[in-house]
Amino acid sequence: MILPFGLSAYAAGFMALALAGAAFVRGYSGFGFAALVVSSSSLVMNPLVLVPMVMLVDAAMTVQQAKGIWPDINWRRVAALYVGALIGVPIGIWALSSVGVDTARAVIAVYVLVACGFLLAGWQITRPVGDVPHVGVGVVSGLANAAAVGGLPVAVFFAAQTLRAAEFRATLIAYFTLLDVWSLVWMTHAGMITRGTIYGSLLALPILIAGIWLGGRQFRRAEPKDFKRFAVVLLAVLAGFGLVKSVI
To answer: What are the phi and psi torsion angles at 32 (to 5°)?
Structure first.
């Protein structure tokens, strides 16, 4: 078999395990897939070539989850976030070549780590959050998505509120799917989608389907308090990975 992106057999095996683990996390929490895959891939390959593939398969995985999450999606939140992302994504992709992916990841990582510190200390947004803050977070998310960490600002924003676990997860998945589709439009325009992107995505799908199914099964067994704790700890871990990678 010809391996995508010129990977060795060892690197391909490592990436298969990384994809399976990231898909399980996505199935359970609704976020973290892109950041986990890109962080893991930096150990064996250039992670930038995987960003378009990660977004393509991330959007495709929603098809598997759509039936289970549909009743719990808060479409008003999704719409407001997406308005911001429509602005942020093209600017982020344009700015990435000037700022650099490591700088972008470092900025987002510091922001997420500080927010996680407040969340673990018990801080929460107790008042209802309107459309304008959602649009603002959507802009930040769109900017960050060029570096495959667009999900982290939104997940922090949701974790600070008193959302039901099912609404938290379903709304994130719905928004990230739209965010990925919009990002892919601009990445295609920038020439970032290649045959390797499509080939790698097709090879990854069986692994991802299994991981998503197992993660979703685990979510149905989880207690709400355990889900919230897992989400905040996962955010901190992902941000830590991103910060370490950006400075090494």
So the answer is: 100, -15
What burial class does residue 89 get, using C-beta atoms within 10 Å of its C-beta: 0-12 exposed, 13-18 middle, 19+ buried? buried
pLDDT for 166-177, tens place per residue? 999 999 999 999
CA atoms of 74 and 196, how far apart (whole Å): 35
Q: Which two tokens stand for residue 167?
A: 């609404």
Interatomic CA distance for residues 165 and 191, integer angstroms = 38
Give CA angle at 180 (154, 30), nearest 5°. 50
Q: Residue 174's closest CA among 24, 88, 67?
A: 67
Task: Enter the tokens of residue 97.
Answer: 């070549």
- Domain range annotation of the chain: 7-247
Could you report the per-residue pLDDT of 34-66, keeping only the tens digit for each? 888 887 887 788 777 888 898 899 888 888 888
Degrees to nearest 5, angle at CA 246 with 240 and 247? 95
